[in-house]
Amino acid sequence: MTEPTFRNARPVLIGLGMMLVAFNMRPALTSVGPLLDSIRAETGLTAVGAAFLTTLPVLCLGLACVLGPVVVRRTGAERGVLVAILVIALGSALRGLGGLPPLFAGACIAAVGIGLAGVLLPGLVKRDFSGQAGLMTGLYTMVLCLGAATGAGSAVPLADAFGGWTRAMAVWAVPAVAAAIAWIVFVPHREKGPPPARRRPLWHDSLAWQVTGFMGLQSSLAYITFGWLPVVLQSRGLSAVEAGFVTSIMSIGQAPSALLVPAFAARLRDQRGIAIALLILSAASFLALVDGPVALVLPFGIGLGLGIGGLFGLALTIVVLRARDAVGAADLSAMSQAVGYSIAALGPLGFGLAHDLFGGWRVSAGLFCAIALASGIFALGAGRDRKVGAPPAAE
């Protein structure tokens, strides 16, 4: 492809590349839950250890997000995305070694790559698709949800096919490597220009903190769902395959709302109402899965997927809408996800510990609803038509 042709085709190609990257940003996380009982039976992992297994990767997501602005300024977003997807592949492959140390280490390493990619993609959307921010955010969020569904739904069948959970988890290194190979084409063509103007840190910006609170708390709902929903369903009498299937359908249910909500929200001046509606849908659906009729777990799972997927797409859209430009989007994305995922990490841990302390799932479900309520409070600020930070100073 010649240079002029590449430049003309770049928006389409980089959009497709973002989809490939997005597909790999959840299977390393969602493939754990359906196999958790098998892992515990084979390794002797305790319930507390299982809670930490679902929590540590989310914490690593937050820590990795701090690197986002540094990577953008020093190497460019494209090179940063390439590094991120290779780190995801490394973490996924490491789990194939078997045993608890590679399992925990691989999960954390993959999460670092996921966190870095998650920070960089909103900046690329703001830079290359500023006029179609809602549509592009919706597209890559939808593909991300489809990746999550694939990871959850295929976990048990892959474990059966490969004779154990280790290879079933390691296989996710393959699509990550494929995405890295496809993304390489963008690295030599990174546009060079003057370094971005220095900005005031967002740590004293109240709107930035409101966006951060909403991002973190709605993410906590998602990671509780990814990590514990299969276990909850199995405790209600479903087999591992059935629980994985419902979780997969739940993840597939995220796709339409992940696509449509950002596109719709980007057309609104105020996103508060849609945030509250999605939080109510998510909480009601989760309660129904925990304590409702077992015969209706499938429609309840779809409802939960619609709520969770819409919330995630909305949170990413709000990051783009509240930023003034691509650098501001990267800074806000880094702050909201670094702090937000650190908050989100407490959700799966607290959910598991509440189950151990009180037995059953009702107290844990109450915690889920409390997190949804807190997320709604932050959404009332984050959804306003405002911009974070001051505009960059003129040179």
Automatic annotation (TrEMBL):
Gene3D superfamilies noted in UniProt: MFS general substrate transporter like domains (1.20.1250.20)
Key word Transmembrane present: yes
CDD domains linked to this entry: MFS_NIMT_CynX_like (cd17339)
Keyword list, A-Z: Membrane, Plasmid, Transmembrane, Transmembrane helix
Signal peptide coordinates: none
Highest taxon in the source lineage: Bacteria
A single GO molecular function term of this UniProt record: transmembrane transporter activity
InterPro entries: MFS, MFS_Cyanate_Porter, MFS_dom, MFS_trans_sf
Domain annotation Major facilitator superfamily (MFS) profile: ranges: 206-395
Entry's transmembrane regions: 12-29, 49-72, 79-97, 103-125, 137-159, 165-186, 207-231, 243-266, 273-290, 296-320, 332-354, 360-380
Keyword Signal belongs to the record: no
UniProt name for this protein: Transporter YycB
Record organism: Methylobacterium bullatum
Taxon lineage: Bacteria, Pseudomonadati, Pseudomonadota, Alphaproteobacteria, Hyphomicrobiales
